[in-house]
Design a protein that fits this description.
This protein is mainly beta. The protein is built from no helices and 11 strands. The protein starts with a strand and ends with a strand.
Length: about 120
Amino acid sequence: QVQLEEFGGGSVQYGGSLRLSCKVSGLSVDDYAMSWFRQAPGKEREAVACISKIDGMTYYGDSVKGRFTIARDSTTNTLSLQMSSLKTDDTAIYYCAAGSHCYEQYEYWGQGAQVTVSS
């Protein structure tokens, strides 16, 4: 059974940093395109970052480029998202997901972790 579980959400002040982790079981993070998405209240789900399964290339949404870093750890089978210079617009529920290719259909999703940035 495949499970993705996010950890590390919480509240932080504007300009602060936070690190999200996604513990994966039932599949290897090396064998899938692994992504982070987010959804803010009243807004559509937004792709935040992706790391491809083939060559480990990383891709970022324009709104987070230069501030967020996605990484995967094969030894712990974990996906992470290091977030810095956080803005109030980054407030959302963050989801990790696994699929065949970045920004195509995803097969597996976590339950989400709340990130709140206060001014």
